[in-house]
Structure formats: structure tokens, C-alpha cells
Amino acid sequence: MKNTVYKTTNAWELNPQWDRLCISYFQSRDFLHYLQQHNPSHQTYYELYKADVLSAGAVVYSSKVNLLTFTKGKAAISIRVIGLPISISDGGLIGEKDSVNQLLNVILKNEKGLVLALNLPHNFDNHEVITMRFLPSIVIDKNLNDWSSYKTSLRSSYRRRLRHLENKNSNTYIHTGSCKAFDHRHYYLYKQTLQRSKTKLETLSLDFFKHLPASFKLNSCFMDGALLYWNIVLHLKQKSYFCFGGIDYSYRDMYHSYHNNLLLALKDSIQNKSKELDLGQTAEVAKTRLGGLTNEKRMFLYHHNKVIFIFLKFIRKLLSYNVQPSIAHVFNDNRRTVDSVLHYCNQSTGDF
Asked: Sign of the C-alpha dihedral, residues 220, 34, 59, 52?
């Protein structure tokens, strides 16, 4: 039977079976609808059916992207992006490999101009597009009972480093609660952090953070009433996500705010009994020194104009992420090796 492709601009019109293909909450119909409400980006949703059964899906949106992000150059272009309109390490393609590639063929014919796909699994393979490395995500997958267990599992040099970081925050106060507490102070720190980011894709509104679903939790660190840093985490079953964060750069060095914000998310994850913490992308060195593994990602570019396509292929090294994976031997069992990183990648690729 011939494959059928449907497309819509309304997330609620998606087949309820969409969620069956998802590998994360961020790809679900509920969260896609939330993104559509609070970060509208001309989203289009594609569904591929085989014998009337939903087999693959895709999210496509519009964004202005700097193609030279990884070479510190500037070439901002408005393009169509296959992905999620939020800086999360999950991709916008769902389904089994063959079905995804069949759907991609339809999308590439339908979408005009330059098309970019982000956060693809490391084994993504499609000869019709220009595939390149993208920012890896960093995941801590060590099952820990409590914070004390984490500290004793570290090699001595990393325990000393951890003790030094914690001492910097010995007189601070942590408040944990609903994202409804997110206010102009948090947003000011978000804007500070965003302005310094070299890989930013979108600017989210204050209302986006304030109205996040109840499953998201806001952690805020204060010193004498001043907000030093904050993060928003999500706990789902046995996996946690460090989703968003902000720091006051005027206090950053004094309180080692960036590193302690990561520690705050890690402590929260351990208290929640999560077996895995996704720390997101960027800052690989800082995150792997906490015990994180790099989960390789891919991206691709496509243009229907053959001349432009050949040109993009010629300069692909300028467009690709080229930093080598960061590996730190953090734990006493010395399990952070190249083999373990590759093993983690093989276990975390999704369905395609």
C-alpha cells in the first residue's frame, strides 16, 4: 500500500499515536502544543502513514541561524529547521529508520530554501543530505543512592575539586518550587547567560518559563537576598533533565556559579532517585568533570539548488562542530573510557 503523508500547523491535530513513537517528553504532543503557544516559530508537523498506521513524524520550524557558529564567524540566515524550537538535545524526527528517511524525502521536496536538521543520532545516515557533527549532549548515567555515595565514588582529585566548589556556596540559600515563582530577576539572569552564549538558537519569553507544566521544577540560589543563579529541572520516571539555567555574571567567579548550578541539578537528580541525568549541550569539560558521558549528535543541511548544495558540501568543515569528545576519569572504578562512551552512544540513539 502506498505511503501517505499528512501535515498540519496545529500540534493538537496530531494523531494520538504520535506519542508512541517519541523517545522523550519534549517530542510529545503535549509539549509541542506548549511550544506552539509560548514559542511560536511557524511550526509544521509531518506524519507518515504505512497502511494507515503512523510510522514516522517530524517537526519543522523557522529560525534565523548563524551557519558559522562553530567557527566564531557570522552568517545568520532565515531557514527551515527540522527539530524542536527550544534548546534541548532531543531531535524533531521520530519513528523507525526507514520510515524517517521516507518522510525526509517528502519534507525536502516540500520545504523551500535551505533546510537544517539538528540533534540527530550519531548513526544517522542519508546520502541525499550533507551530514555533519553537532553539539553532543552530556549525560551522567551512574546510579547513586545519595549525595554521599556520589562523593565517595569520585577519585581524590575530583573530591577535592567538589569540596572547593561546595565551600564557595556554604552560606547560600536554595529555594526549590514551582516555575510559577519565575520572575523578572530570573529572566534578567537568563538574558545575561543568553547574551554570552555562542550557540543560541532562540530567545524564550518570561511567560514561557513561568507557565511550564507542573512537572518542571525551579531551583534558585540566593545570597543575602540576591539571586546568584537558577536552573529548571524535569524529572520523568528514572531520568532527569537539566533544562534551563541562568547566572548573575557579576557574582560568577566569587561563587563559582556555573559549576555550582550544575552541582545543584545533580544533587536534585540524585535526591529524586534518577538513574540518569541529561545535562544538555555545551560546556563539555565542566560537565564531563562531574562524571558525564558525551552522547554524539549529528546535523544535516540540504538545498534543492544543486549549485548551493555543492558549495555547502565544499565548506562543510567550516559548518561542522569539530571539538573532540571530552573524556574525564572521574570515578574510582575508572569506567570513563572511550569504549564506555561509544557504548553509551550505541544505547542512546533512538529508533533511527
From this structure: positive
